[in-house]
Design a protein that fits this description.
20% strand, Rossmann fold, 395 residues, 44% helix, 12 helices, 16 strands, 2 domains, 6-stranded mixed sheet, alpha/beta
Length: 395
């Protein structure tokens, strides 16, 4: 019955989306974005394969474009391989969100207005995803986040999924390891208060600190784009914490760590998902040493699958992949697996049901399943930055 009402609402919503698109409001090109189709990436489709068109909303321009670039390149590598295998042929229609919720909605509306698009991957940031996913769910279009880690993402609706380990799993694992090693009893906290990811990460950090009986010496906030953290870091330093828990995207997070070290704050930092990028090392340099994060992906692993992925990615794009590329790569393979089980690239409901039934998928990041609400079931790896690179955390 619930799906019936959703379908009725979807008819009206689709009409409105078409109207908006006709008026120009649904085009990302009119809002500063760009559209890209990658239908020729891989072998040409034939009648004996399942053909599917997948929309992608990615953060490709702006301050955090490194996230979107990694995601898009991971998708393109997977697309090339999947298409060459000959069972499934995927066309990607890529829209730029520029990291802005409004532009992400415009991109989503443009994709949703295209009846030939089976499903969507993205947007990149949780703030964007919270704006787009409810509309996708209302219209019965499966949507999956590959980098959206805030609590509550899959609970948006029946058609909403993610393959990124949530902050509620990754951050507690990292804090536990840090406290076990250091014997920390006092922690200071800093987070961005105007972004869903950083706010959500802070909430997990605060909850975990309280559960572990840690004393929170101070809670400092900042805003996206800020570049001077002297006041916040002075307050942190004056409380003499054993650890700093920081929920930040790599842009601001890298600067925070660098300024903290220059100020004489030498204790380890525990970061949220936004820190899981080589950009942290590139921007902060040696100051990044001592950062501890939880992740499903360790790029220096000796696992043959990781080694092969690294080699293919570097040959294709001229650089090593990061967590976001790996998660996107796995996401498209998860979609391809669901397409095979659904037996169609046109029926959104059949695809949604096949996707929801994903269990024990052996992906690049390990054994993967969806739980009953479309959230991630897989293991967490804790990493730290040591001597200028991410390494597995040592007790």
């Amino acid at each position: 019955m619930e799906r019936y009402y959703k379908k009725v609402l979807a008819i009206f919503a689709t009409f409105m989306l078409l109207l908006l698109t006709a008026c120009g409001n649904g085009s990302t090109e009119n809002s500063g974005g760009a559209s890209e189709s990658t239908e020729n990436n891989g072998e040409i489709s034939s009648n004996d394969v399942i053909n599917a068109k997948i929309g992608v909303i990615s953060y490709l321009t702006g301050a955090g474009a490194a996230y979107g670039e990694s995601i898009t390149q991971g998708l393109k590598l997977a697309q090339k391989e999947i298409n060459e295998q000959g069972e499934v042929y995927i066309e990607l229609v890529i829209e730029d969100s520029a990291g802005q919720a409004e532009q992400a909605v415009n991109a989503g509306q443009k994709l949703m207005a295209d009846d030939s698009i089976l499903a969507i991957i993205g947007p990149t940031l949780s703030t964007e995803f919270f704006a787009v996913a409810p509309e996708a769910d209302l219209n019965g279009i499966p949507i999956m986040g590959t980098s959206t880690t805030v609590d509550g993402i899959p609970e948006i609706g029946d058609y909403v999924f993610r393959n990124a380990i949530p902050e509620s799993l990754a951050i507690p694992a990292a804090i536990e390891k840090a406290v076990e090693r250091t014997g920390a009893k006092r922690v200071a906290m800093i987070y961005g208060n105007d972004d869903a990811l950083t706010k959500g990460g802070f909430e997990v950090m605060q909850r975990k600190a309280k559960e572990m009986g840690l004393e929170i010496t101070t809670i400092e906030t900042y805003q996206l784009g800020q570049n001077d953290y002297n006041a916040q870091l002075t307050n942190i330093k004056n409380t003499n914490p054993d650890l700093v828990l920081a929920s930040a995207l790599y842009n601001e997070g890298s600067v925070i760590i660098d300024q903290a070290r220059k100020m004489g704050i030498t204790v380890p930092f525990v970061g949220g998902n936004g820190f899981n990028s080589p950009q942290v090392i590139e921007i902060a340099g040696d100051a990044a040493n001592g950062l501890i994060v939880g992740t499903p992906y360790f790029g220096e692993s000796k696992d043959p699958k990781i080694i092969e992925f690294n080699e293919k990615y570097e040959a294709e794009f001229g650089k090593k992949p990061d967590q976001f590329a790996a998660q996107a790569y796995d996401a498209l393979y998860i979609y391809a697996d669901a397409l095979k089980r659904a037996g169609t690239g046109e029926d959104r409901d059949k695809f949604r049901d096949a996707l929801a039934a994903t269990k024990d998928f052996n992906g690049l990041l390990g054994n993967f399943s969806f739980d009953e609400v479309g959230d991630v079931v897989m293991d967490v790896t804790v990493l730290e930055i040591k001597d200028g690179k991410f390494v597995e955390f040592e007790e």
